[in-house]
Write a structure and sequence with these properties.
Elements lengths: L2 H7 L4 H21 L6 H26 L8 H16 L5 H23 L4 H21 L1 H4 L5 E2 L10 H23 L2 H11 L1 H6 L4 H27 L1 E2 L6 H14 L6 H17 L6 H15 L3 H14 L1
Antiparallel strand pairs: 1-2
Helix pairs in contact: 3-8, 3-11, 3-12, 3-13, 4-5, 4-6, 4-11, 5-6, 5-11, 8-11, 9-11, 12-13, 12-15
């Protein structure tokens, strides 16, 4: 058999799929700009939330998909970004835009503090310590009534006047999410991103060739926390309020599920996963709320067993079958 025929039988690698998805991304961007004018307010809200979840999951994927570090407490940084922006509005009287810009830095500061201890551990100890710090954040938010409002939350966190309409805020979230995703793509495509992947595959060998493993992991943790905080700040103004549930452990599993659905080793995976997850959550959970965890668990098991590379991997297989 000729070598060209053999190559033709192999599945398309994910980088090639990424190139094709980038071409589709241009069409998708045009679609997302036009489509809100033909949808009801409910679907505009759904698209807005999809964009926020996609940014949160992409930030988490920088840590897990590219760095090989699984965090069970990433909701802490989502909540720190949301509460940082909300407290600046409610307590300090900041306008919306400066508060939104400051929220991610609050989350990054928290990620730097916690990450300094977390990245010193590996495997299950890394995951459990990340969960422990997230529970600390949840407890502080829940118990500090005079500052965070406790379980009453903080209400009246609305966007600026020019972003009051659902479509205006949707376009704002779409623009911020696009900038955030572009920054994350530049990070994973940089030498820093390649060093992270080297650490993921073989930390001992990466250390041998001169990569400072813990320093790279800490910076990845901080950057992931920053963009998670940006997603949290966007959500605070989208929801109009913040509550301690944003830092609870079940919120930490949301980006994990999204990344597994979409595919952790493809940059487009969290985007695909966010769309699938929010559609399932909206239309399954609203009709059968009791069975939603069962349905989500069954889908995850099926994805892990049948398509461990998620939706992005399925697209790669479909492209291969089409080529054959």
């Amino acid at each position: 058999m000729q070598w060209r025929e053999m190559v033709g039988r192999l599945p398309l690698p994910l980088p090639l799929v990424e190139v094709r998805l980038q071409l589709w991304a241009v069409l998708l961007g045009a679609f997302l700009v036009v489509i809100p004018h033909f949808l009801s307010t409910f679907y505009v809200f759904l698209l807005t939330e999809m964009a926020i979840v996609a940014l949160f999951a992409a930030a988490f994927n920088l840590l897990m998909g590219y760095g090989g570090m699984v965090s069970f407490g990433h909701a802490a940084y989502f909540a720190l970004g949301a509460y940082g922006a909300a407290l600046l509005v409610k307590k300090a009287g900041f306008p919306m835009l400066p508060a939104l810009a400051a929220g991610p830095f609050v989350a990054a500061a928290g990620a730097l503090l916690f990450g300094f201890f977390i990245v010193r551990l590996t495997a299950v100890y890394f995951a459990m310590l990340s969960l422990a710090f997230a529970q600390i954040v949840f407890t502080v938010i829940f118990k500090w009534y005079s500052f965070t409002g406790g379980d009453n939350g903080l209400l009246g966190i609305w966007p600026a006047a020019f972003l009051k309409s659902p479509i205006a805020y949707y376009y704002f979230v779409l623009a911020v999410t696009a900038l955030g995703l572009a920054a994350l793509y530049a990070i994973v495509s940089s030498p820093f991103g390649y060093a992270l992947k080297a650490i993921r595959e073989n930390p001992r060998r990466a250390r041998y060739i001169g990569v400072h493993v813990k320093r790279h992991q800490l910076w990845a943790f901080v950057l992931s926390g920053f963009f998670s905080g940006l997603a949290g700040a966007l959500f605070a103004f989208f929801n109009g309020s913040v509550f301690p549930d944003l830092a609870f452990f079940n919120k930490s599993f949301e980006p994990l599920v999204v990344v597994l659905l979409g595919g952790m080793h493809a940059f487009s995976g969290p985007l695909l996963g966010a769309v699938g997850f929010k559609l399932l959550e909206t239309f399954v959970s609203s009709r059968w709320p009791v069975y939603w965890p069962l349905v989500m668990g069954a889908i995850l098991v099926a994805v892990i067993l049948v398509a461990p590379q998620g939706f992005a991997g399925l697209l790669a297989r479909l492209a291969w079958w089409r080529k054959r």
